[in-house]
Design goal:
single chain; alpha+beta
């Protein structure tokens, strides 16, 4: 029977390789943002009421798609509105 000796250097090298591998896996599998959001998600994201969201739809500020009885909004469009209404304290 052959005995293998594991040194502290071996363990340190293994730890570094394992951590590097985990970092690579985590960076490649970052959670994807939804491309389409439902009304409750948009209201929460913008901090607005259902009536305000309806106003944004009616005046054409926020485009939407209606499938069945559900309204969907593109994530990118919601972010544009969020950025457009950003205020600076200068």
């Amino acid at each position: 029977m052959i005995a293998n000796v594991v040194t502290m250097e071996d363990l340190e090298r293994f730890k570094k390789e394992l951590l590097d591998e985990i970092k690579t896996l985590l960076s490649n599998s970052a959670p994807a943002k939804k491309q389409f959001l439902k009304s409750p998600d948009v209201r929460e994201m913008l901090g607005i009421s259902p009536g305000t969201l309806q106003t944004l739809r009616i005046n054409g500020t926020l485009s939407y798609t209606k499938i069945g009885g559900t309204l969907y909004y593109e994530y990118a469009d919601v972010v544009k509105i969020f950025e457009k209404n950003k205020h600076s304290n200068r």
